[in-house]
Structures are given as structure tokens and as C-alpha cells.
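Intended use. Records like the one below are meant for learning the mapping from a protein sequence to its folded structure. Do not use them to infer anything beyond what is encoded.
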Amino acid sequence: MTCNDIMAFLRENAYPYYCDTDSFEKGSWQDRYFNALLQSLPEETLAQVGNRLVMDPSCPRILFLKAEMILTVKVEGRHAALTTRTLLRYYTDKKSRKVSMAVKELMRRFPSETQESQRTILRAFLSGGRKEMEWAGRHLRDHWTRSLSGPVAERWKATRNPVLGQVALRHLPTAFLLEEQEALAEALGYAAVCARLGSHPAFRLDSARLTVPEYFYVMAKLDAGRSEAVNVPLVMEFMLDEYLDEGERLSPGERDRLLWSMGRIGMTEALMKVLPELRRREEEERSLDRIVFGDQDSPDRMNFVGTLEIEDKMN
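Structure written out for the chain above:
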């Protein structure tokens, strides 16, 4: 039975039924009949029928959705029958024409795999394309596997990918991070490197490379305010006063990070002192918005604020 034969039959019998809202009833025997008809088709024929249904403007939407769903189940069932070893072979053989399928299926079944199998998949993904490499990186960032330290280090050196940089900064040995500190700073920001390495005697923290909010964040991460060797909060109060006096704009992200840092360091008096200034700045921004955009909920203003939020996340 060809695709043309099936399409002719569906146009004559299925189209009228699904287009007639009075006669169509989901779960009726006729609805089940067309489900069974589509289910009976070979996978290749069903894919052809599905493509034809999508392109046909007169086709009832429910019909091509049925075809798509049944095809998906068929394909997933076939893929699920493949062994992980076979999928890995498809993935590593770029001429197999099954790389994309193998990636999706390996990611889908990953949580149910054994630890040994998971390590094998992660190792393969680390050596693969950017999408799979970053997927493996995000997993390792939160669920570290020490035996993959070598592949992570090698792939980081080869790609300078920020996701792998995060994995390295969180989990790899300090000696390696000291060697890679400039590359890591370029990929993740100097503040992130300082927060990780700042307490190591071999690391020289260059405060000139940090903004005041970044410097506060680094000190908070290093618990500098709790050190008995130097009274850091007093120095930082002076830095904060000078920074705010210069009228530097604080993005919402910078403001929140600054407040978190001050709380972590224990700068109670400085927090009480800075509240009026933060309120004044907030009111100035609102007044400026009213002058520029008028209505607080106008589309122009919402788009502008959205743009600023995106910029804050990127910086």
C-alpha cells in the first residue's frame, strides 16, 4: 500500500469525519479505527503520510497530530531497543548518519544507565560536538565524576568553552587552575577566578581588574570579613562610599550581588547607611522612566527594561 493510496483513503473517509464537529467524538470507534489504520502502516510509509498531511491545508489538524504521535512512538520504540553500546558506536561514527538519533536516545536513557555506562557516555560527549560537550559539562558541574578530570582538562584547553570552564573552576585541582587562570578569567570573568583562587598564596589578586561590586563579591566568597589579620569591612566601607559618590549605575544584578556580599561579610552599619542612597537611586530611575516613557506599563518601557535585564545577565 503506497502513500498515495493511504492519502486517497484518508481524504475520502477521515477528512469528512474529523471536520464534522457534530459527528466527531474523541475515543469513538471511528476515532479508534483511524488510530489503528495509522498504527498499521510501516514507519517509512507513515512518515511520508505525515509529511503529506502537514502540507495539506484541508487536512484536519487532529489527523496529522495523530500521525506524528504514532510515528514518534514507533521511532522511540525502535531506538529504545538499541543497546547503549550500539548507540555509542553510531554517535562516534560520524558517517553513520545516525548521530543525531544516537545523541537524543543517549540523553533520554542517561538517568537510568549504570554509573559505568554514564561515565562512558559522558566521556564520549566530552569528545563530541559543542551541544553534547556542554550537556556533559552541565551534568559534571553539578554531579562530579573524578575519573573524568583528564578529559575535562584536555577539552577545556582545546575549546576554552565557558561551560567546561565552570566545571574546571569548581572541580579541577588548584595547580591546574593557577596555570589556566588567565584563560579562565577571559571565559568566566576575573571575579569568578578570584573567588576560587583568592585564598591561595600563589595567586595574586589584582583588585584594579574588579569593579567594586565584584570586589565585594570576591571578599564575601573568601570570607575576608571574618579574617583577624585585617579589618576588611572598614576598607570596603570607604570603597563603597567612593563608588556611590561617583554616581556609578548599579544594575539590578549588581545591586543584589552587592547586598548579598555585604550581608555575608557582616557590614551591618554600612547596610543601614546605604539604604537611603539605594532608595534615592530607585526613585531617580522611576522618575527618568516616567519622563522618557510616560506610562509605566507602556510597551516601549517594558521593552527597554527587558533589554537592560538582558544586558545585566550578559555582563
